[in-house]
Amino acid sequence: MAVRACGLIIYRRLKPAPSSKVTDSIEYLLLQTSYGTHHWTPPKGHVDPGEDDLQTAFRETQEEAGLQASQLNLIEGYKKELHYPVHGKPKTVVYWLAEVKDCNTEIKLSEEHQAFQWLKLEDACKFAEYEDMQATLKEVHQFLCSKE
């Protein structure tokens, strides 16, 4: 059976400079793991028994980044499933998109992560070394730009 995990791609909007495009003010939250290769990823984790996927995404975001569901706006119309092998076993990760209501909200990391960054798309793609995550971040950015 495939391992299943769920998470939220979290973004914030800074106040744009008068000359810049609104989409230039978007930053994405990535967390650096404190295990393995110390890769950067949005908050995510395994589904617990009795939990639905979206509950898992919100629980993991609270555990890993200290963000409560009440501090986030879930963005309608975006959901992404990634499929890839981990240690030779298939894994499915489902992501939703959420915006922090207050761009100054404090991030509180769990012991699973050692650092976090708010990054513009280009930098977020550099930090997220996996191609499917880079593609997902670009897709999210296009989705947000199309809603402007």
From TrEMBL:
Give the superkingdom in one word.
Eukaryota
Q: Which UniProt keywords apply?
A: Hydrolase, Nucleotide-binding
Domain Nudix hydrolase, which positions? 1-141
Q: Which PROSITE patterns match?
A: NUDIX, NUDIX_BOX
Which Pfam families would you find in this protein's record? NUDIX (PF00293)
Q: Does the keyword Signal apply?
A: no
EC class name: hydrolase
Q: Which GO biological-process labels does this protein carry?
A: AMP biosynthetic process; ATP biosynthetic process
Please give the function described in this protein's UniProt entry: Catalyzes the asymmetric hydrolysis of diadenosine 5',5'''-P1,P4-tetraphosphate (Ap4A) to yield AMP and ATP. Exhibits decapping activity towards FAD-capped RNAs and dpCoA-capped RNAs in vitro.
The name of this protein is Bis(5'-nucleosyl)-tetraphosphatase [asymmetrical]
Naturally occurring in which organism (per UniProt): Anhinga rufa
Q: What gene does the UniProt entry assign to this protein?
A: Nudt2
